[in-house]
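Continuing the batch. This is chain 6 of the set; chains 1 through 5 are on the previous pages. Same settings as before, nothing changed between runs. Recording input and output for traceability.
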Amino acid sequence: MNRLTMLVSAEGTWMLENSVEFHAALGDPNPDYDATGFAVKNLGFIKFQILDNSIIEIDLHPRNVEIPALLAVQQQLVTSQVKLFRIRYFDLSWKSEIICSAELAVARLSELCAPKFALSAKDSFLVEPQDYLKLFESEQGPLQLMAQKWRMSFGHFDPSVISFAIKNDLLSRLIIVGVNPRGAEPIFRFIGDGHTNWLDDNYHLHAIGKQVADQPDKNYGQWVAQFYKSVASTGQPRYDYVTAAIQRPPGTFTTRYERLLLPWKTPSDEVLVTLSSRGLREGGSDSASVVEAESSLPRYSAMSS
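Output for chain 6:
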């Protein structure tokens, strides 16, 4: 049986099992134990095996997996020609599942790893992956309209996308980001003025052409930039619920919102990723709040990107 075994570090770096790079990441040049199992269970590594080009096996400990590692594996899955997947994950004991499509495997990995991204004193951002296909089955709204436009356009961006957004009053809540496939950082191409509730009044104007990661709250900017890169590289939409505590004067802007990221092909190598978002409600309210940094986070508030 032909077997190729790779490992993905918590930082999203690929390396061969038992390679010098892996041992360096492990911090032990001559391990006399199951180094791969130790790295997966304790260090947030993901084991990725291809067997005879017919099945992919993935081993992980969901509670220890970081976003870069998860996105790296998901990207590999959606570009693979393999149709059969085995996910083995640790939850008090090792459990195993067989999945028969890349899309379902990607969704299942997101579901398994989602609890890791809960808000804490150290981590201010939470993402809860959703199935974007359910947008086509729900009542019509701004996210549903953009999803339908993307599907009808076969993912090709042209001037009709902007016209459609204007006609349906979607432009103010739209963000367009350009991603170059050669590894450059995502760049802002357009920011609707509906995002001034969490940015400085004129930021949506002077940020055009600048990196998404270089936002006033750089931790938040670097965090969201990962998702733009993932959507551009996989060519797959992404639908999430997001909770974030964004740092800006005079305090912390807290928000809970749903977002839809859509990848659009262009005549150049650049992929455009659009973001549409709207606030999530609790008790019929949909309001923003700014709180002092030492205060506890409100559970819900307004829209963001």
